[in-house]
């Protein structure tokens, strides 16, 4: 019996992964891919860690706004900040991922990168998912940790490509996933370089630099990695472009889409809109060559511990 | 006798490097730096390969313009393109690095990333330095290849941070320096994602995205790596900000500046202007904690073979 990926149940999805890894690493085989080209990219929210009831960055924005609102009460009366102070979840959801990122970026203008690291690190050590009652950093998916290990054992280089704020993810990616900071691509704000007290500092600015979502993901993969991935894993509207970019490269490729259909152990949700990239992906998986992964059926275990 | 860095002469510069590597890797020593923080950044033009009589990207721009000018004669009459067709070196130099990059970016609008890779690869295999009569890719500095190896042997991760076009450097960085494509940071143009004949393609646009020079180098280091380097190596106006960013991090750090003072084996040149970052670096090396490397005195060999 194959002992690899123990938290994955024997299924089509697991076979597709193991078969792919075997094919691209078999020397003199027809699908051999040299190690330098073995690039794997993973979405983060909902692919490597839990993103419900809201993506963790929503809670980060909320906590940061509360800290700033205390210092500047005028902020509390101004939209979009007001939505957070009013705990108006519908209004917050309306902002969308980009709107929430813009809030995070706006309230950190003038903060140095080193200081932001400390802020994000503290939040990550403490912040808890309100529904599941565990820390966000403990709600990473065990089957994915095994997949990352399997890929690295086979000389893949694994990257995160997330719509979430890059700097926050870098604060836990090494410890949680074994993915070094430089292998994290994500949304980012603009910066400047300033000399403060004899020290050169990266200083955050109020403007969003890159919202790393949808068609921007392949563009940022090109900017940061300079190679088309041969394996990509996503779960949402934001990931279809990355998956199809990976699958249309012309060589061997694997595109995986995690389907959140497990109301028991996690959450059950998928297409929020009839016309959306995720609906497109689910409806046309075969056409696009996508491999669907069912959390309910394909994963023996969801979370570690 | 220390057998490391054989192409480096016994000198202050060599001792500074070996001493630094020993200190940061000595477990339980006061200057120990854990492997995850061992980031080294190198400028490319004039630091890892020869940049005289003109930086190789000037010749790349010239060759590409000639190819495009043939297809579109109207281009030949228009400045700044005209300067290249007239072989007007003074006018070309006036454009500066950024101007030349803008020309390269402009003429490749609409070209896919994969096609550009092929174009750059062909040029790199053939293009020759007109003064030294060797291919540009053979005019890399042997002492630097040894230094990159030494650092990697000591669990450093080495990056290029160049004002030159990122995509061109990625075409030879793995073969020439052992630096993977994703560890190359440089100037870059804007892109779009387009579906062409069922294939998702990154397509180059006419606008410069990032001119990776001077104070932008630390900003791009933050964007791409997310850590402050502990070793940086440069040679020109474009590198002082990166060197000082490295040296003011608060922990152990080494900042190296290559001085081109070897008219015999390479070229002798330094400050072109009295007021310039390079003049500042040379005049204030001690203040800034910079280690000067003399090509003439500190290198036993310059080029391989």
Automatic annotation (TrEMBL), chains A, B:
GO MF entries: hydrolase activity
CDD domains: HAD_like
Keywords, in A-Z order: Hydrolase
Pfam annotation, one family: HAD
Gene3D superfamilies: HAD superfamily/HAD-like
InterPro entries in alphabetical order: HAD-like_sf, HAD_sf
Stated name of the protein: Haloacid dehalogenase-like hydrolase
Organism: Croceibacterium salegens
């Amino acid at each position: 019996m194959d002992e690899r990926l123990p938290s994955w149940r024997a299924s089509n999805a697991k076979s597709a992964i193991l078969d792919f890894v075997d094919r691209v690493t078999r020397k003199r085989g027809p699908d051999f891919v040299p190690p330098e080209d073995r690039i794997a990219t993973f979405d983060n929210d909902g692919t490597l860690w839990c993103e419900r009831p809201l993506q963790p960055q929503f809670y980060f924005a909320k906590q940061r706004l509360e800290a700033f609102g205390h210092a500047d009460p005028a902020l509390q009366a101004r939209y979009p900040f007001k939505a957070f102070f009013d705990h108006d979840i519908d209004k917050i959801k309306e902002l969308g991922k980009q709107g929430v990122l813009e809030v995070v970026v706006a309230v950190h203008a003038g903060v140095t990168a080193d200081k932001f690291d400390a802020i994000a690190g503290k939040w990550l050590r403490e912040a808890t998912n309100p529904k599941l009652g565990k820390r966000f950093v403990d709600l990473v998916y065990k089957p994915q940790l095994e997949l990352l290990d399997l890929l690295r054992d086979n000389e893949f280089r694994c990257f995160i490509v997330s719509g979430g704020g890059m700097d926050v993810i870098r604060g836990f990616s090494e410890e949680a996933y074994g993915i070094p900071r430089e292998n994290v691509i994500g949304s980012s704000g603009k910066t400047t370089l300033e000399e403060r007290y004899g020290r050169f500092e990266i200083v955050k600015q109020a403007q969003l630099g890159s919202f790393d979502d949808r068609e921007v993901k392949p563009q940022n993969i090109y900017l940061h990695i300079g190679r088309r991935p041969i394996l990509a894993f996503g779960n949402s509207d934001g990931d279809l472009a990355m998956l199809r970019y990976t699958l249309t490269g012309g060589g061997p490729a694997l595109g995986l889409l995690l389907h959140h259909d497990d109301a028991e152990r996690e959450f059950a949700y998928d297409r929020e809109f009839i016309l959306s990239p995720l609906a497109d992906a689910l409806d046309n998986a075969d056409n696009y060559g996508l491999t669907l992964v069912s959390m309910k059926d394909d994963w023996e275990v969801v979370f570690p511990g």
